[in-house]
Amino acid sequence: MKIHPVFHSFMLLLTSQFIYAQDFTENSINPDLKKNAYAVIRQDNTKVNVLALDKITYTKDFVITVFDQSGDSYAEAVQYYNPRTKIQSLEAVYYDKNGKEIKKFKTKDFNDYSAVSNGQMYTDSRVKYLNYTPTQYPYTLHYKANINFTDNSFSSHWQPIRAANLSIEKSSYEISNQTNATLYFKENNLANYPIKKEIQNNHLTFEITNQIALENEDLMPNYREIFPNVEVNLSEFIYDGVSGKFTDWKGLGLWYKNLISKGNDFSPQQKKYFQDLVKDAKTDKEKVKILYKHLQNKTRYVGVQLGIGGLQPFPATYVESKSYGDCKALTNYMQAILDAVGIKSYYTIVDSGKNGDNIYVDYASLSQGDHVILYVPLQEEDIWLETTSQTTAFNHLGTFTNDRKVAIIKDDGAEIISSQQYPTEKNKMVTNGIIKIDTNGNSVINYSETAKGLLYDDVYYLKNYSEKDQKIIYKKKFNYLPSLNLEKYTYLNNWDEAQFTSIINLQVNDYAKIQGNNLILNVMPINRQINSLKRAKNRTFDLQIKDTFVDEVEFTIELPQNYKSQDIKLDDVIFESEFGQYELKIIPQENNQILIKRSYTQNKGIYKKEKYNEFVEFRKKVESYDNSKILIEKI
Fold first, then answer.
1. Which residues of the chain have pLDDT under 50?
2. Has this prediction a pTM greater than 0.70?
3. 610-631, pLDDT tens digit by residue?
4. Fold of the 424-632 domain
5. Which of 171, 448, 503, 559 is within CB 3.0–4.6 Å of 563 for a Cys-Cys bond?
6. 246-418, what's its fold?
7. How far, CA to CA in Å, does 227 sit from each of 113, 158, 240, 456, 502?
């Protein structure tokens, strides 16, 4: 759920009258803009006029030409709204490649839905959506809307390049402020793009023209980090009748603190209940663990987005009585529980998702962040709690909210800090096992696999799947093993330490290939590193490696009788680069056994685009050695 759902970056808000004289023919587009493009934005003009804090007009005139089905998603006619939004008009006209009108729609033709998503059950946000796509390509959509708002609780956002393979003839953003509030803004990544800007005290204009389509690239950074975007805000606002004033995180944090201050409403008797729960705990960490388990056992997540409730949590007693709440309510509830036992914690605003953005340190706005978590700084260590999950391990944020700038709400305002981080050595997969091979090349593989840190997120959900689905997942994981049969599996979930262990028994026919009297087999039966990256001739953006981990495998291979193992002589493989390290050892043992030891470490970081092909070659080299084969001679 979004903390502030009023304005969405992709909303297409448009004005009320069409100008038929415009040339919407496909042939009128500059050929350079068609290259690598699924669609071309012909014009995307947004105008905001702040007449008063409770009277704002917002218009947008949007024209896009779509070349094939890949571009259909860029031509959506969508408008989100709520009780504080008045849609004056919506219009859409579709044209064929020659500029001839195909079909025309008015406001009444748009479907109207509740904007419920991601577990939200109660929301006053709605969406008008035009469910129509022409059957012929190319086509052009001209979409206009005219919207009035009765509050200005927004950080208006301009991001002209919103996707790869989308070129732009012209996109502009203009805002006028006629109030006494201060208009302030933040520019990002404008220097490398054809952008003009005009800045006055109460008037801002940004425009980009003739921007060619940029292709999507493997491992490119988040769009907000590389594409041009501008954040705009006012120093004063009204949100659902609640006023506020701020220009920095200190001021906004004080407003948030006041908003959530009445959420801790436990009675002395209720506080005594939680105190009794932890009366035998030896440390504060143990107390937090007991109370977090209580939260998970008692509550479930239900999204509630009604008016100021989109920002303000329900009181702790509400959650106590109902046993449900959204991220704001559940976080406030957990905070109130900890407060009852004398442990200080902080309501924390974060942008969620594996590709979630950082909160800007130097720019405050209500629209930043879409989720709330709880930060508990103890003397022995920092604890981070995800309050909406009934299964998440203790003190484990995982990829959903880890390692990014977040805003913690303190008594004297907000402070920007980094959320829980997982250095490389904490993200570890450790595999140990035995593979027994018979004279026909068939094998039985018994192994245990323990995932820690961020790798825990990839596997802990398995215990909740059906047996049928678990087998499908394993067959997909081991698609390089012929005739796989999953015989037995057991899962051990260490909730306290965020560690998940899988104990697996597999049968694999033809694991070793028979060549005359000899056997040829792969030295890595489990967890081979697979590379899907390809070299690039011309790369535009730097590469960002987000996944950092250590993958260790130790396997004993038991050969059938009458086959030699002692005669195997292979040098150790060891290499490293700035991207990571690799080590492989193949060690003959007694009793017709071979010990395989492999360790792979991948580092994270942002690297110059010239390094991309080096990383591809590094990954290919890792894959090659993981796919090494040895020949075992028969005596």
1. 1-21, 119-120
2. yes
3. 999 999 999 999 999 999 999 8
4. Jelly Rolls (2.60.120)
5. 559
6. C8orf32 fold (3.10.620)
7. 32, 11, 33, 32, 42
